[in-house]
Design goal:
The complex is a heterodimer of chains A (352) and B (274). In chain A, 35% of the residues lie in helices and 24% in strands. Chain A is an alpha/beta fold and 352 residues long. Chain A has a six-stranded mixed sheet with strand order 6-7-8-3-9-10, with helices on both faces. A four-stranded antiparallel sheet of chain A has the order 2-1-4-5. Chain A has a four-stranded antiparallel sheet with strand order 12-13-11-14, with helices on one face. The longest helix of chain A is centred in the middle third of the chain and has 16 residues, at 171-186. In chain A, 45% of the residues are buried. Chain B has helices spanning 2-9, 13-37, 39-60, 72-88, 90-102, 104-109, 117-143, 152-180, 183-192, 194-199, 212-219, 222-235, 245-272. Chain B is 78% helix and 0% strand. Chain B starts with a helix and ends with a helix. Chain B has one domain. Chain B is mostly helical and 274 residues long. Chain B is elongated, with a radius of gyration of 20 Å. The chains are: A alpha/beta (352), B mainly alpha (274). Bound molecules: adenosine-5'-diphosphate (ADP) and magnesium ion. Magnesium ion binds next to helix 1 of chain A.
Chain lengths: 352, 274
């Protein structure tokens, strides 16, 4: 596609922080009105890309354009056309939702009356009318996120950047957020969304780019990526380590690809295509016939981890924190901790 | 959106200045609203200085001899005002540090607003806050026996110099806040340097009462120059400042020097935040 129709163009962008090479040659192209899901584990470089595109960081090399404007040379023109919402919030907790939005409107140089109307309009659209005149610190996590998203829309951006918009939200707020984002996208806004969850990218994005260690490792639609995994995933644990090999042998015929064995957790996972419960039954029979005892048998939709496994042959591993680099032993950092929150190292706190 | 299109085209110096002021004022309003809503901030900016006034006036006052300087309360009030301006600056450091750490400043930097607005809005709000505190302290001072002896013009000049002093110290604090960011470290380092600067000066006791080596420091630091000037403007000649001249010029030189050095350090740190 020619540059004309692109809302975002990133060409061979590199960025290092001291000795940490956060981005090593990233290319992206997002046509106007489309949604790009930038998918990757913690430390992959997602936030760094967003920060470069929103003029907060200069790339070391390469070039990045938003709506045809260079993010370094024409930063002001870019800033007039973008909105940003992320894990960090622009909301001042002591002020009411309405005051927060009105002041941001003034900072976008809207006349006072227009800023007031725009705030009221956004509060209504985001289901915050009732709470509008309460201090934002009394809002729930989901409400704060919605207010923050509203703040990023005050300037009527052509291109919106959402950096992990649902990380840390409970499932209900998460789905509410998805619905809001879908409505936005339907109105024609170009969206770049980063996430650690395949299902989120699947739900919201037209196209997904998977990044790891500052490099694009896969790109395509959600369906294309899932095809690479091979459909649904069957997963179970074998409590008796002696039986791992027998278990693998028993279920291997159910999968086109080699079952994945995690020796540490004694967990086996395999892609079973779209055979649904039939695969589940076959697995139980085969394991029973082999005399293997199992625990926690589940069938689930493929996760980012599975995509990683399929694309790279290794599980998605977050960048080791400085602490871990110094050799402290511990469990390998999980991509996402059990409560669904970011299991990031302290470094993230500092930057966001 | 036609208005915005015009803004973009006519990006003249005057327009830039207009928006820089407008953005700074929008943030000033925001900062003052926050201050108004947090009871702890009110206590910190109002109750604490009033407490200091009463403590020095009635607890230490009796034991401190200021000799030919006149009554202790007249000696004290300019010192308390200087101290209030200095200590009030911690709020600047904490607020900017938090905003940097929480990513609020990043969000502002991604918006098409003036680059100077975050710092300017913070400093204007904090100096405004300081002026309110100074007004209250002068009121309390009047209740406990303090009087201006030099007329209204001099009194206004004193308040103006105190505000300029506050602005200079706030610029140091702004730099500290942006450079350190972490709230607890700011609590620790943001105030500690102010203790020697404030107390080893002519603010509360005549410098002649200090040991010689301490006098050397006390006589040659900005706080003493400023306090001597404030005192002259408030109550007229005292042995510490028999004339206005050298003290006023020394104060202004110090304050502009501090503003230029720390103001540009703060701006540089702000630009590099990431
Ligand atoms: N300001 C910074 N200073 C040092 N290292 C950084 C900084 N920002 C990011 N990094 C490092 O760059 C890498 C990519 O970070 P980031 O873009 O935040 O990843 P993600 O958003 O995908 O979790 C990580 O290794 C991170 O520790
Ligand atoms: Mg991130």
């Amino acid at each position: 596609m020619d540059e004309e129709g692109l809302a975002i163009l990133v060409e061979d962008v590199h960025k290092s922080f001291g000795s940490v090479r956060a981005l090593r040659g990233v290319d992206l192209a997002v046509p106007r009105g489309r949604v790009l899901g930038l998918l990757g584990p913690n430390g992959a470089g997602k936030t760094t890309i967003v920060r470069i595109l929103t003029t907060l960081l200069r790339p070391d090399a390469g070039r990045a354009l938003v709506e045809g404007h260079d993010v370094v040379r024409e930063a002001d023109a870019v800033r007039r056309r973008i909105g940003l919402a992320g894990q960090a919030t622009a909301i001042q907790p002591e002020l009411t939702g309405r005051e927060n939005l009105e002041i941001i409107g003034r900072l976008y140089h809207l006349p006072r009356r227009v800023a007031r109307d725009r705030a009221a309009e956004l509060l209504a659209a985001f289901d915050l009318e009732e709470a509008a005149d309460r201090p934002a610190k009394t809002y729930s996590g989901g409400m704060t996120r919605r207010l923050d998203l509203a703040a990023s829309l005050v300037g009527e951006p052509k291109v919106l950047f959402l950096d992990e918009p649902t990380t840390g939200l409970d499932p209900r707020s998460r789905i509410a957020m998805w619905q809001i984002i879908k409505r936005l996208v339907a109105s024609g806004t170009t969206l770049l969304l980063t996430t650690q969850y395949l299902d989120e990218a699947d739900e919201l994005a037209d196209e997904i780019v998977v990044i790891d260690h500052g490099k694009v490792i896969a790109a395509g639609t959600a369906a294309e990526l899932k095809d690479r995994v091979g459909g649904d995933v069957l997963e179970f644990t074998v409590p008796d380590g002696q039986q791992l090999a027998a278990a693998v042998a028993a279920v291997a015929p159910l999968s086109e690809s080699e079952p994945h064995v995690d020796r540490e957790t004694q967990q086996i996972s395999l892609a079973v295509g779209s055979r649904g419960s039939a695969a589940l039954l076959e697995a139980v029979r085969a394991l029973d016939a082999a005399g293997v005892t199992i625990e926690g048998l589940v069938m689930r939709r493929p996760s980012l981890d599975d995509v990683f496994l399929a694309v790279t042959g290794h599980a998605a591993v977050a960048e080791p924190s400085a602490e871990e680099r110094r050799g402290r032993r511990g469990r390998r950092p999980a991509l996402v901790s059990d409560d669904g929150t970011d299991s990031s190292h302290s470094g993230d706190q500092r930057r966001n | 959106m036609t208005a915005q299109t015009i803004d973009i085209r006519a990006d003249t110096g005057l327009r830039r200045l207009y928006w820089a002021v407008s953005d700074a004022l929008a943030l000033t309003k925001r900062n003052l609203l926050v201050w108004w809503r947090v009871p702890a901030f009110i206590v910190f900016t109002v109750v604490q200085p009033v407490m200091f006034t009463l403590l020095f006036r009635y607890v230490f006052g009796g034991a401190i001899s200021v000799g030919d300087h006149g009554s202790y309360v007249d000696y004290l009030m300019p010192g308390i005002i200087g101290q209030t301006a200095a200590f009030g600056s911690i709020g600047t450091a904490i607020a900017l540090g938090l905003e940097a750490q929480k990513g609020i400043i990043d969000r502002f930097r991604s918006m098409p607003m003036s680059r100077s607005a975050v710092l300017a809005g913070r400093l204007i709000a904090d100096v405004g806050r300081m002026l309110v505190t100074i007004g209250i302290i002068i009121g309390v001072g009047y209740a406990v026996g303090f009087r201006f002896h030099q007329g209204v013009g001099s009194a206004i000049a004193m308040v103006a110099l105190a505000a300029l002093f506050g602005l200079a110290i706030c610029s140091v604090s702004a730099f500290i806040g942006l450079a350190i960011k972490d709230e607890e470290s700011i609590q620790a380092f943001g105030l500690i340097w102010l203790f020697p600067v404030t107390f080893v000066s002519s603010a509360f006791v005549p410098i002649q009462s200090m040991p010689g080596w301490l006098q050397a420091f006390a006589n040659n630091q900005p706080m003493t120059a400023v306090i001597n000037t404030l005192r002259y403007l408030a109550v007229g000649p005292t042995p510490g400042a028999t004339t206005l001249e050298p003290h006023l010029w020394q104060s202004l030189a110090w304050l502009f020097g501090i503003l230029v050095v720390f103001g540009s350090l703060a701006v540089r740190t702000y630009r590099r935040l990431s």
